[in-house]
């Protein structure tokens, strides 16, 4: 039943929420549920019953044509990007690899100084303690530092370029009803894993300073293992945050949820342009009063005031777009 309801919701997601449309949506949902119950009573399995109901459902284009609806303005059409089921799967595969690469790159950047310290500590275990030997060890320890950073930068560049090829930034993704229902089901199945990953990441970040303190207590203050343990725990925790965060935002992007709701995407196009003008201007005003009137300690108030006003304007503009889309 939930699958059918999600299907109907996805069909009407971009239609105006008039009383006529709401009644039509309610009637369709009732008819589809009745058909589902009938098929179940005939001995059909749940998957067979749902598949039959969805296949018999009319095309959304027929509804739009029948009621002579113009659901999108010209501005909306410029923001909309329809994706097929195959394109959605391709994008999800890319984003999984993208999330893994970015998360790995961030973790490597965190681990880079830890590897430098680890290299030095291992060298000390082999009694390289003479001044000349230690000078060489300190010099060679820079190699793993830059090696890890080089790999991370390479991952950022390669997968960043691949991300640009999809050109979905600032766009509203439109899905056909079956694809929307399928993706919504996958998203609901993903949420428990996301919650566990975030909880694990938080636990690791809490354990990081604990490991630091334990290493100091057990090994003394003058040791690098405390920092190595700290950075190791943080790197794994941040990896979980980034990887699962990318996947979560991908589902929201494709399903037009959260920060990817149509009104937010459309409003973002204007607010980004305004922000590119307003905030440099505010900085210039701050510098002007600072240099001319030596008001460095008081003129900073212009930044939080501008931020509050800009947030209020953005919220109001989004509300207006949302109301416009409902009409």
TrEMBL record:
**InterPro entries per the UniProt record, alphabetical:** Perm_prefix_1
**Keyword Membrane set for record:** yes
State if Membrane is listed as a keyword: yes
User: Which stretches are transmembrane?
Assistant: 98-119, 139-161, 197-219, 225-247, 274-293, 299-317
Keyword set for this entry?
Membrane, Transmembrane, Transmembrane helix
Instruction: Give the source's domain of life in one word.
Output: Bacteria
NCBIfam families membership: perm_prefix_1
Could you identify this protein by its name?
DUF1700 domain-containing protein
Annotated organism of origin: Carnobacterium inhibens
Q: Please name the taxonomic classification of the source.
A: Bacteria, Bacillati, Bacillota, Bacilli, Lactobacillales
């Amino acid at each position: 039943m939930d699958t059918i309801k999600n299907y109907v919701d996805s069909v009407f997601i971009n239609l105006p929420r008039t009383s006529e449309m709401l009644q039509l949506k309610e009637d369709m949902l009732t008819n589809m549920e009745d058909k589902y119950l009938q098929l179940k009573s005939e001995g059909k399995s749940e998957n067979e019953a749902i598949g039959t109901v969805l296949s018999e459902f009319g095309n959304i284009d027929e509804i739009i044509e029948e009621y002579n609806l113009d659901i999108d303005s010209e501005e909306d059409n410029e923001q909309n990007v329809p994706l097929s089921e195959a394109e959605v799967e391709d994008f999800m595969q890319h984003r999984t690899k993208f999330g893994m690469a970015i998360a790995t790159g961030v973790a490597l950047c965190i681990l880079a100084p830890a590897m430098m310290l680890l290299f030095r500590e291992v060298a000390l275990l082999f009694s390289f303690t003479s001044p000349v030997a230690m000078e060489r060890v300190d010099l060679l320890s820079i190699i793993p530092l830059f090696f890890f950073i080089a790999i991370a930068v390479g991952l950022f560049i390669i997968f960043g370029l691949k991300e640009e090829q999809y050109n979905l930034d600032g766009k509203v993704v439109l899905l056909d009803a079956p694809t929307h229902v399928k993706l919504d089901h996958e998203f609901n199945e993903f949420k428990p894993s996301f919650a566990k990953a975030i909880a694990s990441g938080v636990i690791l970040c809490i354990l990081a300073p604990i490991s630091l303190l334990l290493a100091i207590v057990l090994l003394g203050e003058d040791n690098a293992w405390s920092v190595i343990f700290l950075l190791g725990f943080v790197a794994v925790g941040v990896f979980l945050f980034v990887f699962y965060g990318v996947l979560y935002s991908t589902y929201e992007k494709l399903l037009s949820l959260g920060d990817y709701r149509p009104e937010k995407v459309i409003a973002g196009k204007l607010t980004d342009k305004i922000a590119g003008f307003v905030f440099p201007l505010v900085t210039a005003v701050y510098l002007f009063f600072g240099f001319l009137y030596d008001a460095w300690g008081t003129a900073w108030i212009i930044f939080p005031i501008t931020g509050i006003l800009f947030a209020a304007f953005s919220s109001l503009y989004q509300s207006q777009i949302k109301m416009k889309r409902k009409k």
